[in-house]
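Take a sample.
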Amino acid sequence: MNPLVAPEAHARPHRTALSVNVNKIALLRNTRHIGIPDVVALSRIALEAGAQGITVHPRPDARHIRPQDVHDLHALMQHWPEAEFNIEGNPFHNLMDFVRQLRPHQVTFVPDSEDQFTSDHGWRFPDDAARLQPLIDEAHALGVRVSLFMDPLAGQMAGARATGAERVELYTETYAAAHGTPRQADVLAGFTAAAEAALAVGLELNAGHDLNRANLTDFLRAVPGVLEVSIGHALIADALELGMAETIRDYQRCIQRAFAASA
């Protein structure tokens, strides 16, 4: 398990990692019974093009990622030791079985319901602390880093850190909805405050949900310390137009523009 990084280390410019959520590839594949598009093959292309990680969210109904996909992707990641395998989902559903079997680099706990269309809110503290604690402890005993999916609320970060989680993933849908509108600056200020509060208590930062090529650079310029973004829906949609490899390169250019601006 990676040691915690002191908050002051994040004050320096850094290069945010891109983790590709491949759920929507599986969703398209599942509309037929002929195995295409191939989730593993496209994940390999993404890694070859410069993605630093692969994310999956295996829901109990297997409507996109199926259990075999998780195992096949775990096998693929053995050939990419420098990349990260992130499995996300609700730890009270089917998630912990994958964690116990595969011991991914990171597990992201998300408080979604079994029939939820997509993730739409984060954990709340102290409300969720007692039931999350034994599962966080178990993940740590397995050598797995824990990230908690969180709304951008500065006052919640100390509670998240008190569980022992190493990271939080800031839920960015409100930012994506506000991007390009008069509300953008105010919404971004809330994310910046949440990020600063997280860093101040020793948390590391991820971010994800509805980030895309149009809004990613602005987000990373404004929000300090984001170590990783997990992007799925928009990235897979872009790949239908540009191809997977060029899409990964373009997202990396978006990240690099933010990094260059802060260097």
Remarks:
- Residues 244-262 form the longest helix (19 residues).
- The chain has a mean pLDDT of 92.
- The radius of gyration is 17 Å.
